[in-house]
Sequence to fold (854 residues):
Amino acid sequence: MKNNAVLEMKGICMTFPGVKALDNVDFTLKKGEIRALMGENGAGKSTLIKCLTGVNKFEAGEIYIDGIEGSVVNRDTLDAQKKGISTVYQEINLCPNLSVAENLFIGREPLTKLGTVNRRKMNAQAAQLMKDLELDIDVTRDLEEYSLAMQQMIAIARAVDMECKVLILDEPTSSLDDNEVEKLFGMMRRLKEQGVGIIFVTHFLEQVYAVCDGITVLRNGQLVGEYDIEELPRVKLVAAMMGKDFDDLAAIKQEEIKDFSGEPLEIDAKGLSHAGTIKPFDLEIHKGEVVGLTGLLGSGRSELARVIYGADRNQSGTLKVDGKERRIKNPIDAMGLGMGFLPDDRKAEGIVGDLSVRENIILAMQAKLGPMKKIPMHVQNEIADKYIELLQIKTASRETLIKQLSGGNQQKVILARWLATDPDFLILDEPTRGIDVGTKTEIQKLVVQLAQEGKSLIFISSEIEEMLRVCNKMAVLRDGAKVGEISGNMTQESVLSAIAGGDRNE
Amino acid sequence: MKNPTLHNMKKPRIGSHTIMLMITIVLFIVLYGAGCVMYANKEFGRLQNFLNVLINNAGLLIAACGITCVMLTGGIDISVGSVVAMTCMFMSVGLAEWGMSSGVLIAMILCIGLVFGAVQGYCIAYLEIQPFIVTMAGLFFARGMTAVISKEQVSVPFDSWFGQLSQIKVEMPFQIGAYLNKKGVLMVPYVRITVVVALVMVLITFLMLRYTKFGRSLYAVGGNQQSAALMGLNVKKTKLLSHVLCSFYATLGGLCFCLNTMCGTPTQATGLEMDAISSAVIGGTLLTGGVGNVIGTLFGVMINGTISSLVKFNGKLVASWANIITAILLCFFILLQAIFAKIKERKK
Fold:
């Protein structure tokens, strides 16, 4: 073991059916170091972490942990925890039906002399822990009463409290807003001072540079290199991840501001609302226009889109599609009118894990045609192959089960599903979340291309830079109400100030 | 308690689960109260009648507690009724025809319960077969075994130690609810020993669910299985044990059932598993797992029992009316749960 190292992984190899997921990967983490683990989707980040935490069984290689003699193989996550390796995953892995305190302490509850769970002590310890982390939470309440962001913080609190040597944060920030991200970073820095080594997996490049000391880059299951933060500026990092010279993301920026007021309206919503989530709003979308929905997390961006699509039924107002007034009662109606909707929660609302890539792509098309009309197999294959190639979906074959694909590739399959229905109007809710930079650029390019073909789109994203790149117009939301629209010469500053509010008359 | 700032001063808000339980309890009180008013002339309101509901349903109550534990993990066990029947038959035949001693038989039966549950649990947890299928096989097996042991009805001999148990009356302390019958004899309300066993099991189960690691694991597994595994809980072992527990409770419930009927027949306790499941659901246990407790189940069983009792007191209605009322109640509670779930979603 090298000096100062808290964790060393050497020559890790692991194979999934048909894919070499990890090929001789090394990884070193020093005490008190925050190291970013970077790579595109399917590069092997998650697999490497799962090997470390005992979820995956690797075929070759050794793992050394500070203070433990000889190489270590973790049987399961509990085993890994006992050896000082704690993990916070991308999807929140807590039990919503238990109290916050129980979620913090389950598996290691303080016991009474009788061997039963000492609930009073557990609640007191949990409250103290929350106080230390400056979280204002009633620990006796059920976890499901708190927002996703809060749940994520609780998951991190649980990991932090485990006396850990190595803390793994796997995409912990994807459901947090800026304020909460800053809180998390504060927490990370404090732990770093205590000598904890932190592995940070994220797709937000700026976050890497805000908090990390070093970067390890993987590509296609192989180690590209281990770098200090100074020696790898952003452009070089992206290049290392993609394995090619990087044409700047800004390349697809719109050259000129196009005026859509002359184009016919695709969507004309007047006073649509949904009780409890969305206050009445008007929205006009012209043919060929990309409209962004922006606002803070929880401001009602997704909900507004769901109302238009009929996933949540509107309770007031009228909706004109292509000039005709329509009542959309459910998504099938919307699909019949040429709409498509890519939801943000791809696990719950998007993929059907036990179906193949082909079947997942065909799904919406089939739904549109109705269950009685069969799409001939050769047509299905053709469509599947077309989109696998077009979107560069990394899959062993079109018959591979979608759950075996990495997150970003699953996202691409769902996108393909909607593209296959040839919609006139497409809603993309966070289509690039959790996706690597290269794929992001491809999806952005695709959006612009679709608009040029005359399709209308709603684009929702937490990244303003991305919105600026693809949107012609943005609707700003705050607390479920549409508070303004910005168009024309949009800049990061103008969007941010619109979101933050102040001049509500904009 | 030394440092008051450690404790959150906010009062814990009443959650939807608590409200569900309250509704169940209120419903029970309303049902029973209605009975007292409607059948006042038939003395429905007498304490002994209330206790009879307990006596008649002691076996069901124990079985329902076991099923609640399985349902908490998100599983199901439909073999319970057959296991109860098998227990009754084994006990009756063992005593009447094989001449075995009561103690040995009870020990054997409880062990059979453990093994039965372990086999089912192993198939479900480790071989990952659907619980419905596995326990359906268990249902047929146990029902078949019952008929194999004897095709005829066999009575439990009263002179056996086990038979004697059925004669024990546990009278209410301080003669609560005592009354003079027509002959002027003081009647003190009583329960059978089965009721004492059942209530003790409810208490033990309640404490186990709330205060032991195993109990909390059941909730965790039901809440989110993957999370539970990642938080270091042994999901498979928890599921296996929940089924061992359930079948064990079923055999214990079967013994109580046997003390009540004093016989074994190949067809008895048919559909008891459905009564147990419906009791648990009416008591607030979610079929999807993670929510519920045995206090709710206790009231669920009492509601089911009260309905049967009401139908019986009416005298004119066919017993099947009890099923129809239970069906309506089930719909009502499932609807209620769905509404609460919607409200919760809306709040987010």
Chain A has two domains: 5-248, 252-500.
